[in-house]
Amino acid sequence: MDYKNLLVEVDSSIATVKINRPKALNALNTETVKELSDCFEKIENDDSILAVILTGEGRSFVAGADIAEMSKMTPAQAKEFANAGMSTFRKIEKLSKPVIAAVNGFALGGGCEISMSCDMRIASTKALFGQPEVGLGITPGFGGTQRLQRLIGQGNAKYLIYTAQNIKADKAYEMGLVQEVVEPEKLYDRAKEIATQIVKNAKAAVSYAKEAINTGNQVDIDSAMKVEENLFAMCFSTQDQKERMDKFLNKGK
Q1: Which of 80, 179, 182, 242 has most Cβ atoms within 10 angstroms of its Cβ?
Q2: What letter would DSSP give residue 105?
Q3: CA dist., res. 80 & res. 76, Å (int)
Q4: pTM of structure
Q5: Is residue 179 helix, strand or coil?
Q6: Rounded to whole angstroms, how far apart are CA atoms 163 and 143?
Q7: What's the pLDDT score for residue 253?
Q8: In whole numbers, what is the pLDDT of the chain averaged over residues?
Q9: 3-class secondary structure, 233
Q10: Which residues neighbour 128 within 8 Å (Cβ) at sequence distance 6 or greater?
């Protein structure tokens, strides 16, 4: 997969997608958003890929949406840009394979938003998170007002969005936005270690678990239980379930 603003590598069933606009601190312009959409569509359709690591080149993960591009937008163009970002981030969120954000630096605005569309966030001690949009006269536009409150609670989300305050990785961990904080030189290796641990498990079961969690988060608890019940049952139609349970039962024989 060749792109102007992305570097993509696949190794041992794990795809690494690196946003590569270091001079712009990996800010998301229309071109990059379109490339991300295309890239994750290809990953979805590639059965050899079982997990994804999303990160940034240089000292930034994603510093936000491209302000130089946004500054000239009309309301209609802004709506189209927001729709493109939201659609792409939903594609990442709904991917049938787990996506790990390896947050190496600035994750501000659209950067924080794209990290939240991933299944989990592993952050460098140098990472910085925030939704500073109101300081620029706009609101978050790529899902930040919705995902942030689902991840860290409404009060914390309002605190970060209303104040436009950025927080360091340890504070993000304390709030539940980040799952682990590691030293910069260990970040990618730790993300790869987690991805490797995931791909050792049953492919369908991991995918169904992701679907159950994501769907259940959008509906009432009784409806969510039915989602889990149905996906649990679907596991029993897979060869993985039969082989893995048989191996467990015959261990040591």
Answers
A1: 182
A2: S
A3: 6
A4: 0.95
A5: coil
A6: 18
A7: 65
A8: 97
A9: helix
A10: 105, 106, 107, 108, 166, 167, 168, 169
Q: How would you classify the pairing of strands 128-130 and 167-168?
A: antiparallel
| Residue 249: per-residue pLDDT | 95
Contacts of residue 67, Cβ cutoff 8 Å, sequence gap at least 6: 27, 136
Between β-strands 99-103 and 51-56, what pairing exists: parallel, antiparallel or unpaired?
A: parallel
- Starting at the earlier edge strand, list the strands of the sheet with 106-108: 60-62, 106-108, 128-130, 167-168
Distance CA 69, CA 84 (A): 14
Question: Are the CB atoms for 23 and 1 separated by under 8 Å?
Answer: no
Residues with pLDDT less than 70, the chain: 252-253
Token representation of residue 228: 């889990």
Q: Are 89 and 28 in contact (CB under 8 A)?
A: no
- How many angstroms separate the CA atoms of 20 and 39, rounded? 13
The gap from C-alpha 204 to its chain's centroid, in whole angstroms, comes to 20
Residues recognised as catalytic: 113, 133
Question: 123 pairs with which residues across the strands?
Answer: 103, 181
Beta-bridge partner residues of 19: 6, 56
Give the number of C-alpha atoms closer than 13 A to the C-alpha of residue 134, restricted to the C-beta side: 13
Say what the pLDDT of residue 121 is. 98
Q: How far apart are CA 54 and CA 122, in angstroms?
A: 10
- Residue found under tokens 């795809």: 15
Query: With contact defined as beta carbons under 8 Å apart, do 26 and 65 qualify?
Result: no
**Alpha carbon separation from 85 to 5, 80, 172 (Å, rounded):** 15, 9, 23
Residues 6+ apart with CB under 8 A from 127: 61, 103, 104, 105, 106, 107, 168, 169, 172, 178, 181
Token pair recorded at residue 142: 């790529």
DSSP secondary structure string for all residues of 113-132:
HHHHTSSEEEEETT-EEE--
